[in-house]
Amino acid sequence: MHEMALAEGVLQIVDRTARREGFQRVALVVLEIGRLSAVEPEAMRFCFESVVRDSIAEGARLEILDVPGRALCLSCGREVELEHRYDPCPACDGFPLRVTGGAEMRVKEIEGE
């Protein structure tokens, strides 16, 4: 489960930010997870809860924002939304497609006190 390693990376970002901002505790972490990122949001939730134990983020609420997959169809030239990385173009059923968005995961916001 690579989500555990990703959750540990998120905790490192949260720790650095909390120290820099002088937070006593972190109340909220907002993640953007793209549909094409191969990150399972529920697995990330589970792993996040595990890695934040005994940290400044223990008890923090994790909010996950879904980022749609986007791609440029090299057959018809349209920018389209994709559910899965290897789906055909929904406009023309063509291949290949060049992913232009939704393959990323990032920490969007951290709130603390």
How would you characterize this protein structure?
The chain contains two helices and six strands, in the order H-E-H-E-E-E-E-E. By secondary structure, it is α+β, with helices and mostly antiparallel strands. It has a domain at 3-69 and 102-112: hypothetical protein PF0899 fold. The strands form two sheets. Strands 2-1-6 form a three-stranded mixed sheet, covered by helices on one side. A hairpin with a 5-residue loop joins strand 3 (69-73) and strand 4 (79-82). Helix 1 packs across helix 2. The longest helix is centred in the N-terminal third of the chain and has 19 residues, at 3-21. The protein starts with a helix and ends with a strand. The mean pLDDT is 96.
Quick structural overview:
The chain has 113 residues and is an alpha+beta fold. It has two helices and six strands; from the N terminus they run H-E-H-E-E-E-E-E.
